[in-house]
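Hi L.,

You mentioned the student needs an example of a multi-chain input paired with its predicted structure. This one should do, with 535 residues in total across all chains.
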Amino acid sequence: MASIDIALATIAFKRKIAYKTTWLFSVLFGGWALLAGLAVWNHLIGDGEIGGYDWEAMKAYLVIGFLTTTLAWAGAEWDMANRILDGLVAIDLTKPVDFQRARAAEYIGGMTASVPAAILGTVIAVLVFRPAGPASPLAAALTVFSLLFIFPLAFGISYLAILCCFVTQRFLGIQWAKDSLVAFFSGMMIPIALMPGWLQGLAWAMPFVHFTTTPASIYLGRVDTAGALGLIAVEAAWAVGLLVIARLIWRQLVKKVTVHGG
Amino acid sequence: MADALSIKRSVPVRHASGIYWRALAAHIRSVIEYPADLWIMASAGAVWNVLQFAFLAVLFANIPNIEGWGFHEMLMLSGLLSVAGGANALCFDGAWNTGSMVIKGDIDYRITRPAPVILQVGSSHIGLQSFGELALGFAMLVYGWIGAGVGMAWIPVGALAIVSAALIQTALVTALCAVNFWIKSPMSIFAFLLIQLQGGAMKLPLGVFPAAVRIVSLFIVPVAFINVVPVAVLTGHMNAWWLVGTPVAAVAAVALAAGVYRLGLRAYDSAGH
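Structure written out for the whole complex:
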């Protein structure tokens, strides 16, 4: 990592911590989703189990979902989108720094600023709701390792979403569509295990599943060590794949940039 | 700003509504010129509905009902919520611009024009995702309606519910966007929070949630009257008397939005002061 990446990440980090209300709201957003999820699944599961999740396991599943969504929502995707919508991207093109690389550094720097709030929220949730523990110490370690991939994956997906702004006038509807896709196919809305076979296949073929189902499956021991390592390898492949796909799309879309009609 | 406000109070309703519709029609003409924008945004609006339908289909393949509510009744809940959100995005999406207009001093221009500022800002944009939200939301509502066995005689009630839902949703989002007159941020974070809370809780029967959530959503921020109360009445889960609350909540929410916006304009001190 070059000093330029660290410098951009540091600026984004400082910008993020300067706005403390953003921290608060990122935890509130995730916290509300967690509480709503707990109320619904408590009602549905009761003393039994659904899709192989009993109440203790489901609590752990939802808390992991809270942690990942809090981190994933903390990136500065609006800053990226506005650069394209306002036309600032034209100035970025004149700079001797790759646009995608610079935005990645800023995005991950911004996400890092939310780590203390996300961890604090998770510790509180664990203390209050007492979810199931990890299947083994190794599973716990692999879960933490798999969570690290949330950073490049969240950037990759957000970056693809903001590229839409080359052909739209707003990011609002795009963001909601992206958030819905992540919520559904990550398993946050409903566990993947409850879906019919073809939909499970579709979910596992997309990158969103690694936001909740992958870390939760490793944590709860629903996959063995070899399975966990396989899932982490897939996460790594997606992290790289999303960057490559975005570069290919960028090459086409950047031709649409016009500055004051010229 | 007091002089400017007194000018606008004298604007006749017919004139104001004429300006609003002309601004909106001008936007519609302009969006048709950008078909890629229109199709991408309309598809984005449809995504939520498709996934919501999938969520309910998967859920009800595993459980028979939630608090006595079946699949089709829950479809009506999500459908009406989506129609309300779509109507808001189609008719008053510009309210989301309030924060950035306040920061950039753009409100100055609106104040000098002889039409209510709230209508000028509200009609300053069309959320193209609304086309997808409205089309699929309505389809989901009708599919749920037929599947739940709600009779044709209830159609006038359904129409009242749709109009009220659109008004409450629009008014609450506008009122929360107007908070940016004071907090000076381009992001309408409170309006976002409202949408987030609705997405989390208002697509499920109120009985699932603790009493505090029920009280807040019925009597403090009346989001339950957007979709939960009308659908509960239509499907026999709530007494018909609750329906009276729907237009009442609509009128109250519109009055609240107009009031907050007016207070916001009084607090507005343009950019750089």
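You could point out the following to them. Residues 2-267 of chain B form one domain. Chain B has a mean pLDDT of 89.

Best wishes,
N.
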